[in-house]
Design brief:
With about 250 residues, the protein is α/β, with parallel strands linked by helices. It has one domain: Alpha/Beta hydrolase fold, catalytic domain (Rossmann fold, 3-Layer(aba) Sandwich). It has 9 helices and 9 strands. The chain has helices at about 50-55, 80-90, 90-95, 110-120, 150-160, 165-170, 180-185, 210-220, 245-250, and strands at about 1-5, 15-20, 25-35, 60-65, 100, 105-110, 135-145, 195-200, 225-230. Strands 1, 2, 3, 4, 5, 6, 7, 8 and 9 form a 9-stranded mixed sheet that branches. The protein is globular and about 50 Å long. The two termini are about 20 Å apart.
Length: about 250
């Protein structure tokens, strides 16, 4: 297996690592988006085990980094712009590596990365032309994803008011920035019209499973093609651990 670093912008965090399988191509492509509540202290190496495992199974995995809160340009709107730019960079990587893009890619995101993966697959992100997605998305797999920013904020406020990372990420409260929440939260962008799978541990204390169940019910009612997998005995990080029993559920939906 080979791992290639490639930059899609000038900022130090605008890069990704492409994990190339040992098998011959063309390879189906998975884009991995790591979590960490959008904070700069959490980096793409958190998804390295996931990327290595999937590349051994014949997938080319584009494990991306992006500007995060705590860095210049991180948060609204820079983080969002980076996700689309990183996905679009696959069109350049295709000229160097045998990537299969025509059939569509799979986005896999964990926690905050699940939020960004779902958001990226929506049909109504920004009106700015620079956000146009140039690569078709076949499926999104959200692993303990933050499906609803306002819901996550309510949960945090019930625990420690005004300390939620959502506030730093979006720039303030819902009352002050309702338009941003409308454009940034997957739950407010439904229906996505992209097949989605929500995989969530029932013992998750970081992102409670109710975010996935409530989102699933709303998406289903609006006609989206969506499935939910509730995993008994699994906490927040089990869903991204190839050594966990939860990993079988992830592989099943690939």
């Amino acid at each position: 297996m080979e791992k290639i670093k490639s930059t899609y912008g000038e900022h130090v965090s605008q890069f990704g690592e492409l994990h190339i399988p040992e098998t011959s191509g063309p390879w189906p492509v998975i884009v991995s988006i790591h979590g960490g509540f959008w904070k700069s202290k959490y980096q793409l190496d958190e998804s390295n085990d996931l990327a290595v495992d999937l590349s051994k199974r014949g997938y080319a995995v584009w494990n991306i980094e992006y500007r995060r809160v705590g860095e210049i340009g991180g948060g609204w709107p820079g983080t969002f712009l980076d996700i689309i730019a990183a996905v679009n960079h696959l069109t350049q990587l295709k000229s160097l590596y045998d990537l299969e893009l025509t059939k569509g890619i799979t986005l896999i995101g964990h926690s905050a990365g699940g939020h960004l993966a779902l958001w990226a697959s929506s049909n109504d992100k920004f009106t700015d032309e620079t956000i146009e997605l140039k690569v078709p998305i076949e499926k999104v797999i959200s692993l303990a994803g933050v499906t609803d920013l306002e819901h996550m904020l309510l949960i945090h406020n019930s625990q420690k008011p005004l300390t939620s990372p959502v506030l730093d990420f979006i720039g303030g409260t819902v009352e002050a920035f309702q338009e941003r929440y409308n454009k940034a939260s997957p739950a407010n962008l439904l229906p996505l019209r992209t097949p989605q799978v929500l995989i969530h541990g029932m013992e998750d204390r970081h992102v409670p499973i109710e975010l996935s169940t409530d989102y699933y019910n709303k998406a289903k009612a609006m006609g989206d093609e969506i499935e939910i997998v509730k995993l008994s005995g699994i906490e927040h990080f089990g869903v991204v651990d190839p050594a966990s029993s939860a990993w079988k559920s992830v592989l099943q939906y690939l």
